[in-house]
Amino acid sequence: MSRAHRLVIDRIACAGHGLCAELFPEHLALDEWGYPIEVPGPIPASLTRHVRRAVAACPALALRLEAARTREPSSDAVPRDPSRSTDPVRTRR
Amino acid sequence: MTTDTHTSGRERGYRRGPRVPEGARGERLLAGWLATGRPAELPDHLARYGGIPAFPARGGEHPLIDAVARAGLTGRGGAGFPTATKLRAVARGKRPERVVVANGMESEPAAAKDKALLRLAPHLVLDGIVLAAQAVGASEAHLCVARDRSGLDRDLREMIAERRYNGFDPIDIQVRTPPHHYVSSEASALANWLGGGDAKPTTTPPRTAERGVTGLPTLVDNVETLAHLALIARYGPDWFRSRGTAENPGTTLVTLAGALPAPGVYEVAFGTPLREILSLGGAPRDAQAVLVGGYFGTWLPANHAAALDYSGPGLAAAGASPGAGVLAALPSTSCGLAETARVLEFLAAHSARQCGPCRFGLPATARDFAQLAFERCDRAAWERLERHVELLSGRGACKHPDGAAQLAGSALRAFAPDVRRHLRTGPCPAALNAPPLLPTPAAEIGDGDWR
Questions:
Q1: Is B328 helix (H, G, I), strand (E, B) or coil?
Q2: Rounded to the nearest 5°, which phi and psi values hold at A31?
């Protein structure tokens, strides 16, 4: 419970309601169209209750809370657990 | 280290030495074309390279994955990601059925290398698909190319039928033609379309390697990447590393475009000075800037660009990357801001409009950039533009807004004197009169155009 977290935003699901920034201004601001702008970095354990409130309030269910990684994976290490993976592979064309 | 790799090279029986067919400047993928002057048909291909090499199953990781890892092959589609890492991720997929997708969409309007490769050396790509499918244990393979009137999809289907008739390919490669919008060639968009959905990027994670076509672990690789893989399977990682740099080994295809007497597709070793690459297209005629990478790329002043080495690390020093292999020279008679404004309008029109940045930020950026390029730009519009470019990155499901921000930001830096002039006295004559240099195919994409 006392761990740092990171907020994962499903950018496609997000419809710009803006409640998250209202409830969690410590880490979220809104652009002029109401879409969230994140403060980079993990969310300290002291703010876990605040961020949980924002996650629960999102009408689009676009927010998810994950345990923060302690370090970035090397480019050769493929995360095994998909629920914890970042997204190094983004191929175009 | 050297001794090691040589020993394993002999064990696997890689074909070596003078039998490796290369062009006069060490071209590999284009060696056949340069030697014969015609596209390689199956008999040509077999005479030059022989059949697909066999990798006896030994349990554990497929030996080709290790060969690709030691070769240091990176993706040639734009992201430059290590190919072996992707192969491994798919090969370790939890489901027994897996899928290979060869990406030959080439939705980058200024690029022609993938189409050229599929025309000139198609069997290298087809070999690469078969080999990659063996390496990851896939029984389903798709080759995606654009829907157009060139008949490329039909020709490829005939070649695949010929190979199957001759008993070469253990799997049936399906030639598919997804919609040809700019974002539709992104890996997750292709996987989504092949699984019956829209050709729009999906939220990652999960990545396609974990959950791609119909939820199966899916390898999505650019067609040029797969052609290199087919050569590594034959000649081994040491041979592959004999060109290019230690960090960025091998050769790569580039599309030279813009103010050059002989634009087109060329094959160069990574690490070649950009000045030399541009001179392959003939001496640049009074180029003022070079667009490096493509429409997600970076504008660099011509003299700055010419001094760089063409490789991932070499270009990273200038904030650029090889991207989709486009090098477009901008003549001094053109306006870089006008060119960028047209490309941004194209990118805004070609987005999937799924996330905030592509629904609002990118269209707003394109509008303000057009005002800067073609009209009187007031202070408010200029400040808005700077702020919006800043806000595009890292806030979409895919990298479409990030790519557009990269292009716009680099234009504002590379053409800073023009920006000041436009702000002071309005659009320059070149912005209003010079013919467009970079192709921006008109697109009116409707809701039903994603299937």
A1: strand
A2: -80, 180
Identify the residue among A10, A33, A93 best suited for mutation to test binding to B, counting B beta carbons within 10 A and taking the highest: A93
ipTM: 0.87
Give A16→chain B minimum CA distance, Å: 7
Q: Which residues of A touch B253 (CB under 8 A)?
A: none
CB distance from B61 to chain A under 8 Å?
no
Please report the pLDDT score of residue A80 as a whole number: 38
A88/B81 Cβ within 8 A: yes
Measured between CA atoms, the residue of chain B closest to residue A82 is B206
Q: Is the pLDDT of residue B129 over 70?
A: yes
Give the Å distances, CA to CA, from B285 to A34, B215, B304.
47, 50, 16
Q: Which amino acid is present at B431? A: A
Angle, in degrees to the nearest 10, between helices B400-414 and B416-425: 80
This prediction's pTM: 0.91
In which band, very low, low, confident or very high, does the pLDDT at A77 lie, cut at 50, 70 and 90?
very low
The domain limits of chain B are 2-241, 251-331, 336-439
CATH class of B336-439: mainly alpha
Domain housing A27: 5-69
Q: Using CA atoms, how far apart are residues B131 and B138, in angstroms rounded to an integer?
A: 10
Quick check: B75 and A91 CB within 8 A? yes
Q: What is the DSSP letter of B396?
A: S
CB B58 within 8 A of CB B302: no
Of B427, B228, B439, the residue nearest B350 (C-alpha): B439
CATH code of A30's domain: 3.30.70.20
Whether the CA torsion B146, B151, B156, B161 is positive or negative: it is positive
Domain count across chain A: 1
Q: Tell me, what amino acid is at B158?
A: E
Q: Distance between CA atoms of B185 and B399, rounded to whole angstroms?
A: 12
Higher pLDDT, A44 or B148: A44
Residue with tokens 């990478």: B293
Question: DSSP letter string over chain A?
Answer: ----EEEEE-TTT-----HHHHH-TTTEEE-TTS-EEEPSSPBPGGGHHHHHHHHHH-TT--EEEEEPPSSPPPTTPPPS-GGG---------
pLDDT digit string (tens) for B377-412?
988 999 999 999 999 999 999 999 999 999 999 999
Q: Which of A28, A38, A91 to mutate to test the interface with B (most CBs of B within 10 A)?
A: A91
- B2-241 falls under which CATH superfamily? NADH-ubiquinone oxidoreductase 51kDa subunit (3.40.50.11540)
Cα–Cα dist B399/A61, whole Å:
22
Half-sphere exposure of B436 (CA within 13 A, CB side): 14
Q: Considering only CB atoms, which chain B residues are within 8 Å of A31?
A: 356, 360-361, 391
Sign of CA dihedral B138, A74, B312, B186: positive
Q: CB-based contact (8 Å) between B79 and chain A?
A: yes
